[in-house]
Amino acid sequence: MYVVSLTYKVAQEIVDQHLDAHVDWLKDAFDEGVFIAAGRKVPRTGGVLLSRADRPTLDESLAKDPFNVHGVADFDVIEFAANRTAPGFENLLD
Protein backbone atom coordinates (compact mmCIF):
# COMPACT_ATOMS: atom_id res chain seq x y z
CA MET A 1 0.00 0.00 0.00
CA TYR A 2 1.15 3.55 -0.63
CA VAL A 3 0.55 6.85 1.11
CA VAL A 4 1.05 9.81 -1.22
CA SER A 5 1.55 13.20 0.39
CA LEU A 6 1.03 16.21 -1.88
CA THR A 7 2.48 19.52 -0.74
CA TYR A 8 1.56 22.67 -2.61
CA LYS A 9 4.54 24.65 -3.87
CA VAL A 10 2.67 27.56 -5.45
CA ALA A 11 0.24 30.21 -4.22
CA GLN A 12 -3.30 29.09 -3.38
CA GLU A 13 -4.69 31.06 -6.34
CA ILE A 14 -2.66 28.87 -8.71
CA VAL A 15 -3.75 25.70 -6.88
CA ASP A 16 -7.36 26.80 -7.31
CA GLN A 17 -6.84 27.34 -11.07
CA HIS A 18 -5.97 23.63 -11.44
CA LEU A 19 -8.35 22.23 -8.81
CA ASP A 20 -11.23 21.25 -11.13
CA ALA A 21 -8.86 19.36 -13.44
CA HIS A 22 -7.25 17.67 -10.42
CA VAL A 23 -10.69 16.59 -9.12
CA ASP A 24 -11.57 15.18 -12.58
CA TRP A 25 -8.27 13.27 -12.66
CA LEU A 26 -8.91 11.99 -9.13
CA LYS A 27 -12.40 10.74 -10.08
CA ASP A 28 -10.95 8.83 -13.02
CA ALA A 29 -8.18 7.37 -10.84
CA PHE A 30 -10.75 6.17 -8.28
CA ASP A 31 -12.83 4.66 -11.11
CA GLU A 32 -9.69 2.83 -12.28
CA GLY A 33 -9.07 1.49 -8.76
CA VAL A 34 -5.83 3.39 -8.21
CA PHE A 35 -6.89 5.05 -4.95
CA ILE A 36 -8.94 3.95 -1.95
CA ALA A 37 -8.93 7.26 -0.05
CA ALA A 38 -8.12 10.92 -0.67
CA GLY A 39 -8.44 14.19 1.16
CA ARG A 40 -7.02 17.62 1.94
CA LYS A 41 -4.39 18.30 4.54
CA VAL A 42 -5.54 20.49 7.42
CA PRO A 43 -4.53 23.27 7.16
CA ARG A 44 -4.88 23.27 3.36
CA THR A 45 -1.24 22.86 2.36
CA GLY A 46 -1.78 19.85 0.08
CA GLY A 47 -3.46 16.48 0.18
CA VAL A 48 -3.06 12.82 1.01
CA LEU A 49 -3.88 9.82 -1.19
CA LEU A 50 -4.01 6.15 -0.19
CA SER A 51 -3.37 3.55 -2.89
CA ARG A 52 -3.31 -0.24 -3.12
CA ALA A 53 -2.19 -0.17 -6.77
CA ASP A 54 1.21 -1.53 -7.76
CA ARG A 55 3.96 1.07 -7.96
CA PRO A 56 4.14 1.33 -11.77
CA THR A 57 0.36 1.89 -11.97
CA LEU A 58 0.53 4.48 -9.18
CA ASP A 59 3.43 6.31 -10.82
CA GLU A 60 1.66 6.33 -14.19
CA SER A 61 -1.46 7.81 -12.61
CA LEU A 62 0.42 10.44 -10.60
CA ALA A 63 2.24 11.55 -13.76
CA LYS A 64 -1.16 12.52 -15.22
CA ASP A 65 -2.33 14.57 -12.23
CA PRO A 66 -2.69 18.20 -13.34
CA PHE A 67 -1.05 19.23 -10.04
CA ASN A 68 2.01 17.27 -11.18
CA VAL A 69 1.84 18.26 -14.87
CA HIS A 70 1.68 21.99 -14.00
CA GLY A 71 4.16 21.93 -11.09
CA VAL A 72 1.53 22.78 -8.48
CA ALA A 73 2.61 20.24 -5.86
CA ASP A 74 5.47 18.03 -4.75
CA PHE A 75 4.61 14.35 -4.37
CA ASP A 76 6.10 12.15 -1.64
CA VAL A 77 5.27 8.45 -2.10
CA ILE A 78 5.65 6.27 0.98
CA GLU A 79 5.25 2.50 0.85
CA PHE A 80 3.36 1.20 3.86
CA ALA A 81 2.72 -2.39 4.99
CA ALA A 82 -0.29 -2.46 7.32
CA ASN A 83 -0.07 -5.32 9.81
CA ARG A 84 -2.68 -4.15 12.31
CA THR A 85 -5.98 -2.34 11.91
CA ALA A 86 -9.00 -1.33 13.94
CA PRO A 87 -12.12 -3.47 13.50
CA GLY A 88 -13.76 -2.82 10.15
CA PHE A 89 -10.53 -1.91 8.39
CA GLU A 90 -9.16 -5.42 7.85
CA ASN A 91 -9.21 -4.89 4.07
CA LEU A 92 -6.19 -2.60 4.54
CA LEU A 93 -4.00 -5.42 5.86
CA ASP A 94 -1.17 -6.66 3.66
From TrEMBL:
Residues 1-80 form the YCII-related domain. Pfam families: YCII (PF03795). It comes from the Bacteria. SUPFAM superfamilies: Dimeric alpha+beta barrel. Belongs to the YciI family. This is YCII-related domain-containing protein. It comes from Arthrobacter globiformis (strain ATCC 8010 / DSM 20124 / JCM 1332 / NBRC 12137 / NCIMB 8907 / NRRL B-2979 / 168). The lineage of its organism: Bacteria, Bacillati, Actinomycetota, Actinomycetes, Micrococcales.
